[in-house]
Design brief:
The chain has 2 domains: 173 residues, Vaccinia Virus protein VP39 (Rossmann fold, 3-Layer(aba) Sandwich); 62 residues. It is 23% helix and 32% strand. Strand 6 and strand 7 form a beta hairpin.
Length: 256
């Protein structure tokens, strides 16, 4: 659960160790392999697109991330992938991609209503007619943040024969339950003092997500509650959404 805003190279290098390849990655890889041109928004270390290229994807692959340290990791993958530093404001979008994805709960860093609206409009502008936008967000009904406690410390290799200890601590939960602020602490022998990152994530229920999507000209075509494509319920761990531009609607270029 490393926040992808990390600018520290030493922390970015730990991302894939903390977040090993899993069922969610397999879910997205299948989608990427079936699309000719793909935009990965908040691509992090680039492992999804890198894996797709290694497994034979020959179309256009672009990864977009605001953290330069993450893109240092990404650029170590297979050649022929476009890595762009920035967010959706990095360029104007004109119907370039068959598929846009936001993995690793990156959607939850869109905290404000207007920020979210602008992001969705930008994604829509980036898609060709019939293109799809696929993302996941944690279901607030599952209250995942209740497990983000210091007693659930993890130990991972630092890649140099040492150990890094990682733990989380929730600092605040908004009265409406939508915004959760927490710290993520990294402690290891290579650092004089622990590294602490403070992050706020937004938890939106399915109905609110759908309202924002409709405003941006999207329609939801598939929704799942887990990576096995199980049905979404009020207690599902994930809200996995497959959306596509609604026919006859044009919301213009996004500017986020």
């Amino acid at each position: 659960m490393v926040d992808r805003s990390f600018a520290d190279l030493s922390l970015a290098a730990l991302y894939d160790t903390l977040n090993p390849w899993g069922p969610g990655d397999d879910f997205y890889l299948g989608l990427v392999m079936s699309a000719g041109a793909v935009l990965d928004i908040g691509c992090g270390t680039g492992r999804l697109l890198g894996r797709a290229r290694r497994e034979g994807h020959r179309g256009r692959l672009m990864g977009l991330d605001p953290a330069a340290a993450m893109l240092v990791q990404a650029r170590a993958h297979e050649p022929g992938i476009e890595w762009v530093l920035g967010d959706l404001r990095a360029r104007e979008w004109h119907g370039e991609f068959e598929l846009a994805v936001m993995t690793g709960h990156a959607f939850q860093v869109l905290l404000g209503d207007e920020e979210l609206r602008l992001a969705l409009r930008a994604v829509r502008a980036a898609l060709v007619p019939g293109g799809r936008f696929v993302f996941e967000t944690r279901n607030p009904g599952a209250r995942a943040w209740e497990a983000w406690t210091p007693d659930r410390m993890r130990e991972i290799s630092d890649g140099y024969g040492g150990v890094v200890r990682v733990w989380h601590e929730v600092k605040s939960v908004a009265a409406d339950g939508q915004r959760v602020t927490f710290t993520e602490t990294f402690e290891g022998a290579r650092w004089e003092r622990p590294r602490v990152d403070r992050t706020t994530l937004r938890f939106l229920d399915a109905g609110t997500l759908d309202r924002f999507l409709r405003e941006a000209g999207f329609g939801v075509v598939e929704r799942y509650g887990d990576w096995g494509r199980g049905p979404f319920t009020s207690t599902s761990p994930e809200i996995i959404t497959v959306a596509e531009p609604a026919a006859g609607r044009n919301c213009g270029q996004g500017v986020l």
